[in-house]
Amino acid sequence: MKKLIVAASVALSMMAGVAQAQERDLRIAFDVPYAPFEYKDDDGELTGFEVELAEAMCEEMNANCEFVIQAWDGMIPGLLARKFDLIMSSMSITPERAERVLFSEPYYNTPGGWFAREGFDTDVTDMDAMEGKTVGVQRGTTMDTHVTEEMGGIVNIKRYTTADDMVLDLEGQRLDVVFVDYPVGEQTILSKEGFKEVGEPVKLGQGVGVAMRKRDEDLAEEVNAALATLKEDGTYDAIMEKYFAYDIKM
Q1: Coarse DSSP helix, strand, coil percentages of the chain, rounded to the nearest 5 percent
Q2: Domain check: are 232 and 178 in the same one?
Q3: Of the four, 94, 112, 121, 192, which is 20 to 30 A from 25 by CA?
Q4: What are the record's GO terms for cellular component (predicted)?
Q5: How far is residue 165's CA from residue 156's CA, in Å, rounded to a whole number?
Q6: How far apart, in Å, do the first and last CA atoms of the chain sit?
Q7: Contact 248, 109 (CB under 8 A)
Q8: Residue % of the chain over a pLDDT of 90
């Protein structure tokens, strides 16, 4: 009888452990607005490519996920301070960031793009022609790093907390040109009358990954497995096709 009781207790304990695993709570951070990746729709609901991908990933992982809105320049500090568990907000994988956080396998890759008002006819690759121009970037992004390294001391760099603020200054003629994630510029700038793409898209970094704390190796394995399944079963493509007319996956 004792053996039966012990066996039953072990079985119940194992079942409880499975239930707890299925009820993992995760907090995922997004920088909003950053359309088409994450933004609020007309009803105030959070949506976008990465938001829908995160929802599918959480379902695949059997996780209860809470979505947290966080300004871009506080992303990594917030993660390290345990304000949230993952960053899924178009964070490009770079060697500098990889020293501080653990990245998943990349799940998409898009280039940076140059956008300006109609009438801007300067070659953005000609440093003599660009001298003195005012260039807008979002602070702390790979676009910011690229412009700083390639054009620092040549152009005036104006950094913004949000892409929306940068676009407003471009509209208000306080910027000559902006360098931003290509799909963001495509949706938020080219959709407006009087603006155009200038120059060629610039491929940056090693793609975009989910960022986690360094010690969360088990979580990273779960994230990688879930994303791989979503790519294999067609879920990733179905979400991607809602937001892009081209393939962005790695």
Answers
A1: 40, 25, 35
A2: no
A3: 94
A4: cell envelope
A5: 17
A6: 57
A7: yes
A8: 84
Q: Give the C-alpha separation, 211 to 222, whole Å.
A: 13
Q: Which of 107, 104, 108, 93 is nearest to 213 (CA)?
A: 104
What contacts 82, CB < 8 A, 6 or more positions away?
A: 213
Residue pLDDT, tens place only, 87-145: 999 999 999 999 999 999 999 998 999 999 999 999 999 999 999 999 999 999 999 99
* Number of folded domains that form the chain: 2
Residue 148: which domain range? 112-202
Give the CB-side neighbour count of residue 103, counting CA atoms within 13 A: 21
Q: Say if 130 falls within a structural domain.
A: yes
Q: Is 20 among the domain residues? A: no
Angle, CA 233 vertex, CA 230 and CA 237 arms, to 5°: 65
CATH number at residue 78: 3.40.190.10
Asked if 104 and 210 touch (Cβ cutoff 8 Å), the reply is yes
Residue with tokens 């009358």: 193
240-249 pLDDT per residue, tens:
999 997 778 7
Q: Which residues contact 63 (CB under 8 A, 6 or more apart)?
A: 24, 25, 26
Identify residue 209 by its one-letter amino acid code: G
